[in-house]
Amino acid sequence: xxxxxxxxxxxxxxxxxxxxxxxxxxxxxxxxxxxxxxxxxxxxxxxxxxxxxxxxxxxxxxxxxxxxxxxxxxxxxxxxxxxxxxxxxxxxxxxxxxxxxxxxxxxxxxxxxxxxxxxxxxxxxxxxxxxxxxxxxxxxxxxxxxxxxxxxxxxxxxxxxxxxxxxxxxxxxxxxxxxxxxxxxxxxxxxxxxxxxxxxxxxxxxxxxxxxxxxxxxxxxxxxxxxxxxxxxxxxxxxxxxxxxxxxxxxxxxxxxxxxxxxxxxxxxxxxxxxxxxxxxxxxxxxxxxxxxxxxxxxxxxxxxxxxxxxxxxxxxxxxxxxxxxxxxxxxxxxxxxxxxxxxxxxxxxxxxxxxxxxxxxxxxxxxxxxxxxxxxxxxxxxxxxxxxxxxxxxxxxxxxxxxxxxxxxxxxxxxxxxxxxxxxxxxxxxxxxxxxxxxxxxxxxxxxxxxxx
Length: 454
Hints:
Elements: H1 2-41, E1 45-49, E2 52-54, E3 60-64, E4 71-79, E5 85-93, E6 100-101, H2 119-122, E7 125-126, E8 145-153, E9 167-174, E10 181-187, E11 190-196, E12 203-209, H3 218-225, E13 229-233, H4 249-260, E14 265-275, H5 277-288, E15 296-300, H6 314-321, E16 326-327, E17 333-334, H7 335-342, E18 359-364, H8 372-385, E19 392-397, E20 414-419, E21 422-427, H9 432-453
Parallel strand pairs: 2-9, 12-13, 12-14, 14-15, 15-18, 18-19
Antiparallel strand pairs: 1-3, 3-6, 4-5, 4-8, 5-7, 8-9, 10-11, 11-13, 16-17, 20-21
């Protein structure tokens, strides 16, 4: 009996010790979890919404879990397919809750100042030490740009690689929405890329041509993401076009016919959208080719009047301009003055009454590349003179330059550019946030115009 009592006492004591130890372990675990949660609550965080979006869609960027009134730096970085590093940064101070909202708060310094919700995109620049400034262009349009947003303590301006980021978030910026089809076009001498929206169609469609930069697909891909079949055309500065080919009016007429023949395209709902020389060519087509009947025309910074229908090769006229080109104080090419000195034939910008469709003119008044403002004013006057002024809508932006891109694209006042036989640094014009605002507003106007007329 005494032995059994001793055994029970020992067992009871062991159980109590085990239970105490278990309770201690559980208490320790709870304290550890509480500490971890507390630490997580006090670890700075940065997040973007949405993390995947089209290039023309805005995002919300916020920072939380900072001390109140804490100076911080937000830095955006992007690597293009040439492995060039692009970066922008901005300085903020957290509010009394330890938060920063880029959509509402003002940047106190860095790549821009003031409240600029998308400033960390449009102010991107090639990092110091990189190659000669180039435009940000997407070579593989079916993959996104990947943008990292990093948070740093204090207001810093350089040597970011030597600093440890407090937090990082990553975004994907796409030109193609899911389901958009991308088709290489090499037919009847036409070189380009056709983008078709998701679904069976038929879709309203656009020919899309830029200036003298070869084949540029990003705008066409965005338009297809918005419901328009879009053929991005190449002409000069493209390896599959011989030097000088792809510049006569017949090339663009063949492109029109090709687009009309696509089964997914509504053949009676075609429009034209061009920038620079591309816009001038489309104005020429709409005004003087009776078998081309666009439903609407968008012209961005057009030098209309420089081109005449009887010229078989527009490249030759451009080459005659180059010896007259002046340089600014920084050695940048200023083709606008050369065009004006050459004697742009503004009176020949179109046959009176030739244009039968609504026209949207987008003008950067600080365009240093071509006399787009003078051309737009003359076209307006000619349309009014023949009783068609009601067909013309013009939006003119005082501090916007030549390269009016879709929204949030980096603003480039100058960049390297391949002219026939030489690479130069071209002066495009444009003033920072004013040019960025023009890109955003003009894109909205373009989409509204296309929705109305196509």
